[in-house]
Amino acid sequence: MAMHTGKPTAVAEGPGREEPPDTGAGGAADRHRLTSLQGLAALSLDAMASVAYGPESIVLVLAAAGAYGLGFTLPVTLAIAALLAVLVASYRQVIAAFPDGGGSYAVAKRHLGRRTSLVAAASLILDYVLNVAVSVTAGVAALTSAFPSLHGERVWICLGVLVLVTAVNLRGVVDSAKAFLVPTALFVGSILAMITVGLLRDGPVSTASATGHASALGDGATAVGALLLLKAFAAGCSALTGVEAVANAVPSFRAPAARRAQRTEVALGALLGVMLIGLSVLIGRFHLQPVEGVTVLAQLADASFGHNAAFYVVQFATMVLLALAANTSFGGLPVLMSLLARHHHLPHVFALKADRQVHRHGVVWLALVSAALLVLSGGDTNTLVPLFAIGVFVGFTICQVGMVRHWYVERPGGWRTKAALNGFGALLTGVSAVVVTATKFTEGAWLIVLALPLIVLAFEKVHRAYAEIGERLALGRVPQPPHRAPSLVVVPVSGLSRLTCQALTAARSLGDEVLAVTVTHPAAEDRQAAEALRRDWELWKPGVELIELSSETRALGRPVSAYVRKLAQTRPDAQLTVLIPETEPAHLWQRLLQNQRGSVLAHAVRRDTDAVICRLRFRITAAAAPTPSGVPVPRS
User: Which residues pair with 618 in a beta bridge?
Assistant: First the structure.
């Protein structure tokens, strides 16, 4: 029970409390939801930014086979684009079938069982958290490459970027979408312009960015093995991270939410596919070779535009988008955590929404964990990349298998074709997950293999805890009719004041019997204060008995809680309430002047007894004038 400004109010906590759903399009809450274009800006940054390192990942793997191996860049990219098309089609169906969001988790929960759904959720959580750290460090790495003097401060710069993205997201998904719409448009526009201009060139305009840098090309080879192609395919699939974000965050869209989310998913897939294929065509057209210290995207911009202002625009847009790609996680993960909380696998606080449709607890938790990763990694992208993308492949595979089951159960028209498409996608993503995990296991991927089951175990433990609480509270069962019990209210006091008067007035309104207690100490000066209080109390005659509790150790909370326990034993039929009066200062800084006596008493009573705790707050707004008799009068 809580009490504010003299009026008691009860606050009950327990599993299963949920907010009522928002109703109707165009309502007050709809202002804080996303349009399709805003959703593209808020939820696609991760996928869009992946074109900066996806093609490069393919090139770096194939470079081991020399120039001959680089000739397979476009075929590998086309295979990834085909998988992208499968994923977009699949997640479009996921959005329609699961409009409450959750993506892989929601699909698995319905069709593959609770345990499998928790594996999907754990994999998505890991991917989202790592995406924040990788995106921020990659963006800052681009900055420190241009300004080497900032390299020593990269951790602080990473934390600064994280704070900026977090602050924008705490204002709501719409505000974050508006803030990131321009950087997204600038990046997509510059990449598409670079592809268009590059396709019109007969050869590279400039190679200045690569001049003087050592080639990363392997010795000449005349054969490319299947394992190398699989590794290149798995490495390039890092470009597919973020595709699932729209399906996870469907409730963030304006009504009709599912239709808007589907349009966003298709637009994301189309833009990403065009950029990936276009960049791969340019790599083959310009016969680019990877070099140390210069990204493939920078070489392509150099070759298409020349080493001029347009080249630096591409670099700047890439740097900004990489740093802000963390926003995808802030849009998707809090919604997923909210769903997990409603299913009792995470603390229920993650299901709460702020007034701007923000799951603030999820946003803050994501920011704190990501900040810890940034500090532990020293702001180094290479430390985090081996951990990245494994989780999303696990989620992809589970989602595809779940959709196969979905088509088999529902059996709509053409369900065999749809199931075959999802089954093929599950095969591709499953192979990718195994290859990526195997090739990166010793580089740190073993941490993900260890973390996944630990997170699932944590989900299970939280679920069991809520089940036990629900059993104790008899949730879902009709309780016995309420009955009236004798009410006894205990009021701790330390002196006479308007606060004391208002506390006793409230107590007498609440209970059949009221007892005032004061803690005394054997020291001479303390005995004098206690005797003075006793004399003043007898002169005041409030009609409430004052009981002195002696404490040899000057403790405050333990004597009161011990007395309340004694009352509970001698009066088992009575409803015990401890009403703790406190002052509420007019200014925030004045709280530093308080002795926190109320908090100490509340903690002790809550720890040692089952009594109801009622904290009465007396707001200090203006000086109080005494009555002619000198007796304090309560003021509401």
Answer: 583
pTM higher than 0.85: no
Cβ count near 472 (within 10 Å): 9
Specify the pairing of strand 7-9 against strand 2-4. antiparallel
| DSSP code at position 543 | S
Q: What angle do CA 80, 430, 90 make, to 5 degrees?
A: 60
At 466, list the tokens.
């809520």
Residues 417 and 623: their CA atoms lie apart, in Å, by: 78
**Per-residue confidence at 630, pLDDT binned at 50, 70, 90?**
very low
Phi, psi of 231 (to 5 degrees): -65, -40
User: Torsions phi, psi of 377, nearest 5?
Assistant: -85, -5
Rounded CA-CA distance 193/236 in Å is: 22
Pick from 104, 105, 116: which is nearest to 343 by CA? 105
d(CA 356, CA 353): 8
Strand partners, 520: 550
DSSP 345: S
Are the C-beta atoms of residues 435 and 231 closer than 8 Å to each other? yes
- b/e per residue, 168-180, with b = 16+ CB within 10 A? bbbebbbbbbebb
User: Residues for the chain: how many in total?
Assistant: 636
Residue 391 and residue 126 in contact, taking contact as beta carbons nearer than 8 Å: yes
How many CB atoms are located within 10 Å of the residue 316 CB?
A: 17
Q: Which ranges constitute the DSSP H helices of 411-444?
A: 415-440
State how far the alpha carbon of 582 is from the alpha carbons of 143, 276, 599, 601, 607, in Å.
52, 63, 9, 11, 19
In this structure, which amino acid lies at residue 393? F
Residue 131: pLDDT band with limits 50, 70, 90: confident
CB 482 within 8 A of CB 469: no
Largest pairwise CA distance in the chain? 106
**From CA 517, how far away is CA 503, in angstroms rounded?**
12
**Residues 589-619: tens digit of each pLDDT:** 767 766 678 888 888 889 988 898 898 888 7
Per-residue buried b or exposed e for 569-596, using 16+ beta carbons within 10 Å of the residue's own CB = eeeeebbbbbbbbbbeeeeeeeeeeeee
419: which 2 tokens?
Answer: 């199931």
The label of the residue with tokens 């409030």 reads: 542
Grouping H, G, I as helix, E, B as strand and the rest as coil, residue 575 is strand
Query: Do residues 299 and 291 lie in contact, with contact meaning Cβ atoms separated by under 8 Å?
Result: yes
Residue 550: alpha-carbon gap to chain centroid:
49
Other CB atoms within 10 Å distance of the CB of residue 431: 16
**Cβ-Cβ contacts under 8 Å for 274 (sequence gap 6 or more):** 192, 195
pLDDT band at 11 (very low <50, low <70, confident <90, very high): very low
Question: Over the stretch 226-255, which tens digit does the pLDDT of each residue have?
Answer: 777 877 877 777 777 778 778 877 877 887
